[in-house]
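A favour, since you know our structure tokens better than I do. What I am after is a single protein written out in full by you. Could you add the entry underneath, on a fresh line?


***
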Amino acid sequence: MNNSKRLRVVDFTTTIAGPHCTRLLADLGAEVIKIESPEGDMMRGRPPMREGASTSFGQLNAGKESVVVDLKRPAGLAAAKRLIATADVLVENFRPGVMQRFGLDYPVCRALKPDLIYCAISGYGQTGPSAGLPAYAPVIHAASGYDLAHVAHQQVDRRPDYCGIYIADVLSGTYAFGAIMAALYQRQQTGEGQLIDVSMLESMLSLCLGEMQVAQFPMPPPGRPVFGPITTRDGFINLSVASERTFRNLAAACGRPDWIDDRRFAAYADRRANWGALIDEVEIWSTQRTRAEVQAAFDQHGVPASPYRTVKEAMADPQLAHRQAFAEVHDSGGRFLALNPPFRLSETPAAAQPFVAALGEHSAAVLAELGYDEGEIAALVADGIILCTGPAAADA
């Protein structure tokens, strides 16, 4: 995306899934123009807030331009169409039918720009009996089977967990990003645009790989879960032993080479059946030691394990500092850290841009680039069709 002509993305997205997708595009150098209503994306009011600026909004929208257009007004719709005619990619995550009511569905936009990549992210997909249902990430977690599968792995009969981490949003936004990359490659080969239809339900179901197969080919309930916490003197460590080599390494780390020949543990099937007994013996060793001591022994012997950490502790990991995993971003409230993309390209920069646009900051500049003169922009502002807060606002 570092060609002389930047990829132009018109971003009609709100909240999390769509903005996550388009921020990845911005991180790779695309020009992302975020279209907002006069009220702005609801995430602009999401805490943490500093001096009226939300870091939750900022981390999802760093590096994007903000243009405020009232799509319910004919003049606002006309401005949006003029912008779409200059775009390479359009991304939206409204409920199916909303863009059609605006007059900006795929057939309309394709007529404006035949090679446009049009990506629509929704809860259940653009068509089908559930397409029109409202959906947020926690609803999709429940609908996909993920929540009950997670509970089943705890082997405790209890209520499903409350949701505070919106996996379906981030996952579907990431799938949308990948699909856009594939569509752009296809366009390069054929010159043709296309519609991308991303389903949050199907995205979330993709996490349940083993569970989908067991649903088709039932198996006896497993024994004690293999991947989970062990107790130390001052906390818990996740232990994940998945191969013969790592089992042997575990035996060495715990000073128990006898486990390798123990009939309960020597063969995988027997070890799996007696996993509870194995963990009980591990904890005889681990509960006499601190988390740091246990982790050091595991690291020394190549045992996959990690202390359970808070996000704040994880952010302080020297490994993340080494990889320059965070970018410093500034907005009207000051500075904050945002995570860069979790991939590195040897020849292409991939990092969060260091600014967050104010609501309507780029409205005047973008409309001027589209051919609107100062008088036309001023009239649109006076009629409440656009909002300008950037350098040209006073003139407009």
Summary: The chain has a mean pLDDT of 95. The longest strand covers residues 31-36. The radius of gyration is 26 Å.
